[in-house]
Amino acid sequence: MAHADEAEQRVGVLEGTPERKKQRCSPQNESSGHNGSHAINGVAAANGTDAPDGQGTEVPSPPSASQTAMLTEDAPLHSEAHKKVRYANSTQSCPFVFRTSDGQKIPFQTTVRAAGSSMEAAMRIARMCYHKFELGLAKPEVEQYRAEAYERLRNGMGITPKETKRKPRAPKEPKPKETKELPKAKAAKGKKKSFAIKASDLKQLNEQGRLQGALRIFGRDAKKKNATVNGIYLLSKKFEGSAAYERFCPSGDDGDDLQRWLFYAKDKSRWKVSEALGHHHNFAFLKVTDLTLGSIASDPDR
């Protein structure tokens, strides 16, 4: 009895009222001292109730006498529950993981809210649930025991199940999407050009005599990559002893202003289309043995 009395005195200090201390030490409650007093002492010591004001964590209010009377069951002193079950202040719960004989891990917990806002009751129920696992009960059976223990508490305190449930959070209103006006250049991104040449441009080139010796490359689908090789290539200058051609850029807002050159690369023995004369990167090439290429000067529509 000395051990139980010492534990009850420490509980009395935790609860802070002589009436509670006296009630705990009464003969009526001593009959369950070995079963309940040690457990309450364990909760007090595990949660740092001796911390100075303003430095300790917030601990739920201690249980009333009616709560203790309604829930006197706790794990026996020899149970590992008194070592494994701890209170988590961040989640206001008493979680633990029980490991079975075959190595299986079973996570479990009780919550202060479900236990009538009593941390002591939540700890006692959690320890008893751990002991149920020790006795070989399956998880659904332990969950049923936990639900029944919660219900006994609610009945004793006059609390309805709705009061122990969290209020659903109000759904967040979706933020209106900001619509930004894209510049014309970006808005038109992805639009494939047809690379069509206006009849007026061809007429002007023909009148200027620039179609003499010119070439026309066509057939590449405008939706495919490197379709910019299509177009009319005007004879421009010599490159490494062979003729070099510069693609004509159509006029107007829809015109294609990307520069392309057609020239013969001796090191590769091929005609290449690149963005710069003599550039080693190319968009297209054609291996040939005859350097004689036709002209469209006599037939601009060809």
Q: Mind explaining what this structure looks like?
A:
This protein is of the alpha+beta class. It folds into two domains: 2-164, no CATH class; 193-287, no CATH class. It has eleven helices and eight strands. It has helices at 2-15, 18-24, 27-30, 33-46, 65-70, 81-84, 119-134, 139-157, 161-164, 184-187, 199-208; strands at residues 93-99, 105-111, 215-217, 231-239, 242-247, 261-265, 270-274, 284-287. The strands form two sheets. Strands 3-4-5-6-7-8 form a six-stranded antiparallel beta sheet, with no helix packed on it. The protein has a two-stranded antiparallel ribbon with strand order 1-2. Helix 1 (2-15) packs antiparallel against helix 2, helix 1 packs across helix 4 (33-46) and helix 7 (119-134) packs antiparallel against helix 8 (139-157). It is rod-shaped.
**What percentage of amino acids are in beta strands?**
15-25%
Question: What is the average of the pLDDT values?
Answer: 67
**Structural class by SSE content:** alpha+beta
SSE sequence, one letter per element:
HHHHHHEEHHHHHEEEEEE
Shape: rod-shaped
Number of strands: 8
Helical residue percent band: 25-40%
Q: How are the strands ordered across the major sheet?
A: 3-4-5-6-7-8
Total helical segments: 11
Protein name: Glutathione reductase, chloroplastic
Biased composition (Polar residues): 25-35
Biased composition (Basic and acidic residues): 170-184
Region (Disordered): 1-69, 156-193
